[in-house]
Amino acid sequence: xxxxxxxxxxxxxxxxxxxxxxxxxxxxxxxxxxxxxxxxxxxxxxxxxxxxxxxxxxxxxxxxxxxxxxxxxxxxxxxxxxxxxxxxxxxxxxxxxxxxxxxxxxxxxxxxxxxxxxxxxxxxxxxxxxxxxxxxxxxxxxxxxxxxxxxxxxxxxxxxxxxxxxxxxxxxxxxxxxxxxxxxxxxxxxxxxxxxxxxxxxxxxxxxxxxxxxxxxxxxxxxxxxxxxxxxxxxxxxxxxxxxxxxxxxxxxxxxxxxxxxxxxxxxxxxxxxxxxxxxxxxxxxxxxxxxxxxxxxxxxxxxxxxxxxxxxxxxxxxxxxxx
Length: 324
Fold this sequence. Notes:
The chain is of the alpha+beta class. The chain is 39% helix and 23% strand. It has helices spanning 3-16, 19-26, 30-44, 60-84, 100-117, 169-175, 181-185, 225-233, 281-294, 314-323, and strands at 49-51, 56-58, 92-98, 121-127, 141-145, 154-161, 163-167, 188-192, 201-205, 211-215, 217-222, 239-242, 256-257, 263-264, 268-274.
């Protein structure tokens, strides 16, 4: 193993926080990783890590080497991208990550067609609702809901996502259909909650054009959108839902949009996030295919919601954008 390879192992150990995790990623024994770090220190003639039985810390020399290792990884990646762009046909591995429901419904169909067209491209797809380390974990592209919080990454919007409020006919029969946000506030809700985000309030714009919100009476919380939809289908709660969660439930009469006259804020934007501005051919072609499949005027999921362009203040927001 050469110096470059050992520096990359060293970088992985530090970024992942342990020898064991680095070994697991490389599918080798922990002792192999430890041995290569020792050889790296020997060849450089400096100690890079202060080790204890349970942890390690960087020496001053190690901190400097980490900077250089990151620069080297970036340079190697850019070099590979340049070479790939000279291929007449896309090939190689395309490593992707996405939130579960976005990946299943909207990315996987694109992968299927993409590999029919470009059979030399292999795809590795990981469904992760956690915020993955795109660079550290070696992903070519991630699909994320909401803006990127990492200034070192490139983020390109794919489509806007709007919010609606849905309930089952059984729910409406049991509780009645609410006419005001104050009435809605008293009804049982199913809401999103994860380790990093908890939806307890529902913001909207009132009749005076002022920002307002209600505190939802959440009787069920989950970190999975499909579970929230199942709860709404059960007739025991309503749920505020981003439009991409809607499949055929409204078309089939299983769910009904309620409070359609309320002006709701947009939910988020779905973005493609990647490490480098200059995408290799296979990544650029795949991103183009995703954008074509999802669309943005309207996005594919809004076609499952008849009359959606007239609901939740959407018509007003379009007019405002045109006048602006």
